[in-house]
Amino acid sequence: MNHPDPLFTQTPPQLGNQYRDDCLLVSWLHRMLPLTRLREFETEIEELGAEVGGPLYRLQLNDRLHEPRLTQWDAWGDRIDTVELTPLWREAERLTLEYGLVATAYERRHGYLSRIEQFAKVYLFHPSSDVYTCPLAMTDGAARTLVHSGNTRLIERAVPRLTSRDPARFWTSGQWMTETTGGSDVGGSQTRAVPDGDGWRLHGRKWFTSAVNSQMALTLARPDGNPQGGKGLAMFYVELRDETGRLNGIRVDRLKDKLGTRKVPTAELTLDGTRAELVGERSSGTRAIEPMLAVTRMWNSVCAVAFMRRGIALARAYAAERRAFGQPLRELPLHADTLAMVEAETWGAFLMTFLLVELNGRQENGELDTQQEAMLRILTPLAKLATGKQCVAAMSEAIESFGGAGYVEDTGLPQLLRDAQVLPIWEGTTNVLSLDVLRVLQPMNGLETLRRELGFLLQGLREPGLVKISARVEQSVEQAESWFRESAAAGGTQLEAGARRFALTLGRALELALLAQQAQWSLDHEKDRRAFAAARRFAAHGINLLVEMDVDEARMLARDEPG
Ligand SMILES: Cc1cc2nc3c(=O)[nH]c(=O)nc-3n(C[C@H](O)[C@H](O)[C@H](O)COP(=O)(O)OP(=O)(O)OC[C@H]3O[C@@H](n4cnc5c(N)ncnc54)[C@H](O)[C@@H]3O)c2cc1C
User: Which residues line ligand 1 (CB under 6 A)?
Assistant: First the structure.
């Protein structure tokens, strides 16, 4: 008897070595690292590439349904507020220590390259880590903030733990800023700081505190008698539990029920007499905590581009296997065009992000001149805001490229889009960072700085197609500059309303210039045209997003009132 054909089953997308399969990362590291160092580093990063595309990725898929659990009371009525983490997070901590995902930057064995090596590893690790990178970002940020504060006692107490590779010593840190009154405008914070002997006691409510399992946190509170507003806040150091494991005047009211980042325990806390130590001055806490934000924004950019890479890696693997209309998807011209669009955006986002990483490394190594310091200050919000938006758009395309499977939970794919959506929100929303870009450009003559950086990037281009791209970059920046000057002259409202389009235009111009530079290097040293193709495609997506928009019409539409 003849058997009918067995029912078709689709092969799921497989990930290979996430270092070896990433031609941009491989090429960029070859450009940046001296050959002898590259050879040593490649042993480590290839091993990590295999881990995150193999065992850790499989664990992530199997761990899909686990979420952190808060237990508030023990059997006898004692308040304990313990949070049980997911199995993957425990493995992620082990890998963090093994690969020194925070430590590498502080051991500084290879000067400014240490930051590059750290973030090359974080970039591979992040998409398989269920956003364990969130506490790591804050840990790195806290270490830098404490070092910057010059508070010797706290530096000696906390920094060796935050940057340790030893599981018995390692601490992570939280960052408690957002209150119910607002995260963008923390000036309205209501947490009080009351002097108590040598220290302080905090009283208030923190509304979003991620990684509440951390051992310490940096937080903002208003010392009694200080004025309202941001200047009246001071930065405090808190250890969450005492030697016996009891919480330090902290109640974990509940864990947030979130769209994404569901493996990250994000809590609402009540501080009820929490012992705290003033880190620096009794005021200007928002300024004191800035080093934290500079670091976490860099992590955010790296995580955004890491998600984009994971999206494209999975989409590409699927397009090689899945067939439609008699061919693998990747042979269908429109599907190939769609993936190429995501790839080109990923290249631009990667290059801008890793310029940020390089400048941070050079700053820590004392290598930046005033111009480069100014460039770093502009680049930090620019990279965070641009990559956050690019990531969400890219993840949406990646999900769609799987058709219905991309919408089905047990493929593990929907989580990518949900997790990506946090990137434009935390560590400063797109709007808040766009306004920050305006703020830093004005006193520092920042457009001049940016122009100089672009000039440097574009100066070596010889390939005719890249020379055309160079003209495109210059034209976009000139247009942005005219818009900026005219809007500033016309008064603040127009400038503020257009801040996001302006910042994104600058971000895209910079990404394109970096792509052109990478393309010329690749043509010269690798005879590879992929970066060139990515640059042309990126340029075709549009650079200048500035258009005149009527501010009153915007108000009419936002308020939905007849005009
Ligand atoms: C998963 C998750 C984890 C988090 N973890 C932490 C944490 O660990 N620690 C912590 O401190 N915070 C944390 N946050 C909070 C986060 O930083 C804030 O949500 C964010 O800063 C925005 O603040 P908000 O929610 O109060 O929104 P709001 O400040 O109320 O902003 C609402 C909207 O108004 C816009 N807006 C605000 N001001 C302006 C302006 N001047 N011009 C134009 N538009 C403006 C914003 O862009 C936003 O779209 C977390 C958030 C999430 C989602």
Answer: 174-178, 182-185, 208-210, 258, 261, 266, 422, 425-426, 429, 431-432, 435
The alpha carbon of 175 and the centre of ligand 1 are apart by a number of angstroms equal to 14
- Closest ligand 1 atom to residue 174 Cα is 8
What is the model's pTM?
Answer: 0.97
Beta strands in 256-296 (DSSP E): 267-278
Distance in angstroms (rounded) separating the CA atoms of residues 188 and 180: 9
The residue whose two tokens read 């040293």 is 525
* Most informative mutation of 177, 184, 296, 437 for ligand 1 (most atoms within 8 A of CB): 184
Alpha carbon separation from 507 to 227, 372, 448, 504 (Å, rounded): 37, 17, 15, 5
Cβ atoms of 442 and 378 within 8 Å: the answer is no
36-82: pLDDT as tens digits: 999 999 999 999 999 999 999 999 999 999 999 999 999 999 999 99
pLDDT in tens, 464-501: 999 999 999 999 999 999 999 999 888 779 999 999 99
* 184 CA: nearest ligand 1 atom: 29
